[in-house]
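Fill in residues.
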């Protein structure tokens, strides 16, 4: 049960980050999501977009802690760490 909660939290964290990136690219820029990602990568701003997308992870983390889902909250933190390491290599 512990590993499944951690995995669910990790998946929720990744989805929240992708949703945050999607919302930022579609609302702030005039491009589609995939084209916006390609443009930001070419300009060297992809790490900043991933960071802005991770803001939703903070909200998810807080909600999970309020619901006493500590292991899922740890999964969200693990997702943020994985995204940070991935961003370093992009």
């Amino acid at each position: 049960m512990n590993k499944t909660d951690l995995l669910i939290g990790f998946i929720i964290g990744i989805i929240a980050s992708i949703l945050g990136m999607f919302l930022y690219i579609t609302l702030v820029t005039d491009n589609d999501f995939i084209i916006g990602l390609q443009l930001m990568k070419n300009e060297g701003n992809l790490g900043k977009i991933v960071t802005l997308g991770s803001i939703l992870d903070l909200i998810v983390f807080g909600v999970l802690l309020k619901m006493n889902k500590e292991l899922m909250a740890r999964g969200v933190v693990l997702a943020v760490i994985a995204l940070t390491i991935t961003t370093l290599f992009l």
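DSSP finds five helices and no strands in the chain.
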